[in-house]
TrEMBL record:
GO BP field: fatty acid beta-oxidation
Catalytic activity of the protein: a (3E)-enoyl-CoA = a 4-saturated (2E)-enoyl-CoA; a (3Z)-enoyl-CoA = a 4-saturated (2E)-enoyl-CoA
InterPro entries reported in the protein's UniProt record: ClpP/crotonase-like_dom_sf, Enoyl-CoA_hydra/iso
Lineage per the UniProt record: Eukaryota, Viridiplantae, Streptophyta, Embryophyta, Tracheophyta
Top-level taxon of origin: Eukaryota
GO cellular component: peroxisome
Entry's EC annotation: 5.3.3.8
Protein name in the entry: Delta(3)-Delta(2)-enoyl-CoA isomerase
Pathway terms, separated by semicolons: Lipid metabolism; fatty acid beta-oxidation
Family affiliation: Belongs to the enoyl-CoA hydratase/isomerase family.
Organism field: Sphenostylis stenocarpa
Alphabetical list of Pfam families matching this protein: ECH_1
GO-annotated molecular function: delta(3)-delta(2)-enoyl-CoA isomerase activity
Amino acid sequence: MCSLEKRGNVWVLTLDGEDPQHRFNPTLIDSLLSALSRLASQATPGSVLLTTGHGKFFSNGFDLPWVRAAAATSSAATDRLQSLVDSFRPVVAAILSLPMPTIAAVNGHASAAGFLLAISHDYVLMRADRGVLYMAEVDLGLPLPDYFAAVMRSKIRSPATLRDVVLGGAKVTAGEAVKMGIVESAHDSAESTVEAAMRLGEVLARRKWMGEVYAEIRKSLNPQACKVLGLSQKAIVSKI
């Protein structure tokens, strides 16, 4: 599950619930989609999203134990995994089209789909004392979904870094991620990471940008990812 709390103009979306690894299963994905839909409908000039996790994990990706459970055959497990891949696509699309600036405060491990969730945000801040960014598919023997690849290419512009992260399965610490340009900054603890993200959110909120315009500009910066996700550009009439 996830919770949504408004602090001033900053909306704080926290991955929490009984699973300490915040693995994406139908329940968590539905909860995320509901929260993001609420955000999109209630956005006002100056709104900002801050996403974080509770505990030692930001998110450990898809819920593979759920995939394997109650699956009598390998094809049944494959179908379950594909259902997660398909249902998570709208989550990424919603973040990339959200009418407000977005910040991920990565409080711990962010693996596979958890890594993707983090870098789908406009800004990524990360805890330095614990946790890594890890695209696990190559080690798990799983293909990379098309929208995963599109977002990774859009957000990680260095071919060598993209190779090491996606094909090499590199486990990237916060300090390394800063040097690679994947995250903005590294912080001493989960608490200081969220505090820094809140300060950034408050700075962004003071700009009072029009959310719809902000979202369209974001789309224009990530054309291939938006194409794969089925996001189209909308014409906005200037008020000038």
